[in-house]
Amino acid sequence: MTVPERPVRGGRPGRRFDLRATTVTFALAAVALVLLGWVVRMAFDVAQRRPAWVFVLVLGAVTAALLRRRARSRSFAARAAVRTTDALAAATATVLDELERGRAEGVERACAEEATVVVRAEHEGLSPDEFEEAIADLCRRDGCTEVEVVGGAGDLGADVLAVAPDGRRVVIQCKRYADDNKVGSQDLQRFGGTCFTVHGADVAVLVTSSDFTAPAADYAEWCGIVCVNEERLRDWCEGGGPAPWERLPPKGNGTEPSERALW
């Protein structure tokens, strides 16, 4: 008896396994996961300062997930992984830049606020070193660069050195005195003997937490030293008065007292 032969259905040829392409895909996916974890960790730190960036990062994550879902073929998956990695790297760099900028702005504001608080405190409670640091902070707040506290033994009369916003060299001597102890002419003479010749000051300033005697004020007007007493120091600190280097009448001709007034 003859048995009829059944026709064999043509099977669909299987797709060949490509080990190299699979390895590359898994490697890219691993890199993307590492970067994603890093970005998530940074996002928690940034969220407290820049809430808007949380929305940007979430939007980027959703976009990456959609691209991943649409990656059906091997070549498209590779391209999507590369694009996702680049996008995550760019987002991370942007977040880090914004975080660093926010920290810098926070430090600058903190320095300005600290300068205001310190100088407005009772001067009797500040040590001479703290008083010098407070004056240096005020200089930084008002745009000075290269601010340096140099007070101490052998300072030759200079406690704070700075460069004003217009490029002039500012030399400041600080006198943290009690209210009943005024700065006398001898203090001004010692400072006047070094501020211009030794330190090369374009603007010489003597700041005190008390006041100046009349002879001291006369000497300062004669040789061109800007005097800042307690009242004017508070105005400077609170923004009610200009910085000492902002009001300088023209220099005298050397034969007569210059017309520089007390600041």
TrEMBL record:
Q: Which GO terms describe its molecular function?
A: endonuclease activity
Indicate the transmembrane segments per the record: 21-44, 50-67
Q: Where is this region: Disordered?
A: 243-263
Q: Which organism is it from?
A: Streptomyces violaceorubidus
Q: Which domain of life is it from?
A: Bacteria
Keyword annotations from UniProtKB, A to Z? Endonuclease, Hydrolase, Membrane, Nuclease, Transmembrane, Transmembrane helix
Q: Which residues form the Restriction endonuclease type IV Mrr domain?
A: 126-237
- InterPro entries in UniProt: Restrct_endonuc-II-like, Restrct_endonuc_IV_Mrr, tRNA_endonuc-like_dom_sf, Type_IV_Methyl-Rstrct_Enzyme
Q: What is this protein called?
A: Restriction endonuclease
